[in-house]
Every structure is written in C-alpha cells, then in structure tokens.
C-alpha cells in the first residue's frame, strides 16, 4: 500500500474488520481476493471527494478462484492483473520487474530474489519510498514474511 500513512492505516484496519466479519458470517470461510478488492474499491469510490491518498494491491489465494492480484486506488479504480507496483517508486520497481528475468514459471527463490531487487531499486532511488523492505510470499497454504531489511543499516 502506498499513500498517506493515516489514510493507508485506516483502510487496512477497515478491510481487516470486513474480512473478519465475513469469516464470522460465512462459517469461517475466508473472504475471496475479488471480494476484498471490491470492498476497498467501493469504499474508495464512495469517499473519492475526500482527496484520500491511497494506492494498493490486494492479493492472495482463494480455493475457488486461485491466485489473484488487484490494483485499487483512491478514486475506486479496480484492475485485475498479474503484476502491479504502487507508489512513487513504482516506476523504478517496474524497471526491474519488466525484465526477461520475470516469467510465470519462476521458482519461489527466484521470485523472492526478483522482488527484493525491485523493491530495493525503488527504495534507493526514490526519496518517498521509505527505507524498509518487507517481502511476503503467498502460497495456497497462506502467506509468510520471507525477507526484511532496513536500508538505513546498509553501509
């Protein structure tokens, strides 16, 4: 997620609450990626006059739909695709991701390595991208953090 810290924090909490409510109402079935992205998209659209600063990727795995990724921004735009980057450093990240190294049959290790390089590249070249890298891997069994780095500690 990229944008204003307060805006992003609020919408993360809102979406988390909606996902938990969905589980309670639907016999512990997790919310689908499509539904989660639609909820945040609708909320952004309904509040577009507030001049929010939010750009996000909603991604995950659902048994019925498989792996999905959606881009949602503060105007309510919602796009399904296979790769997105958000924020002021996204063009730098895409410069790495749009190489021949990115392919659908990558191993987990190759994908994580490419993700680290893309985020590091963006973070080091864009003052608005912050100084922390966190990489998460999404599988059919859930998600887990696979890498973190504080760029301030790099010499």
Spell out the key features of this protein:
globular; 4 helices; 155 residues; single chain; two-stranded antiparallel ribbon; alpha+beta
What does this structure look like?
Helix 3 runs antiparallel to helix 4. The two termini are 27 Å apart. The model has no long low-confidence stretch (mean pLDDT 90). The chain has a 4-stranded antiparallel sheet with strand order 1-2-3-4, with helices on one face. It has a two-stranded antiparallel ribbon with strand order 5-6. Helices cover 39% and strands 26% of the residues. The chain is of the alpha+beta class and 155 residues long.
The class by helix and strand makeup works out as alpha+beta
Spatial arrangement of strands, main beta sheet:
1-2-3-4
Percent helix range: 25-40%
Query: How do the helices and strands follow one another from N- to C-terminus?
Result: EHHEEEHHEE
């Amino acid at each position: 997620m990229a944008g204003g810290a307060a805006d992003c924090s609020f919408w993360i909490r809102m979406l988390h609450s909606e996902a938990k409510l969905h589980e309670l109402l639907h016999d512990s079935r997790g919310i689908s990626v499509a539904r989660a992205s639609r909820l945040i998209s609708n909320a952004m659209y309904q509040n577009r006059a507030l001049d929010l600063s939010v750009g996000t990727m909603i991604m995950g795995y659902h048994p019925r739909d498989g792996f999905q990724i959606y881009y949602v921004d503060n105007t309510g735009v919602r796009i399904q695709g296979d790769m997105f980057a958000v924020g002021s450093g996204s063009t730098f990240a895409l410069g790495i991701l749009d190489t021949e190294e990115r392919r659908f049959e990558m191993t987990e290790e190759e994908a994580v390595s490419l993700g680290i390089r893309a985020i590091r590249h963006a973070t080091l070249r864009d003052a608005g991208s912050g100084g922390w890298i966190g990489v998460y891997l999404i599988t059919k069994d859930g998600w887990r953090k696979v890498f973190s780095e504080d760029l301030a500690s790099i010499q």
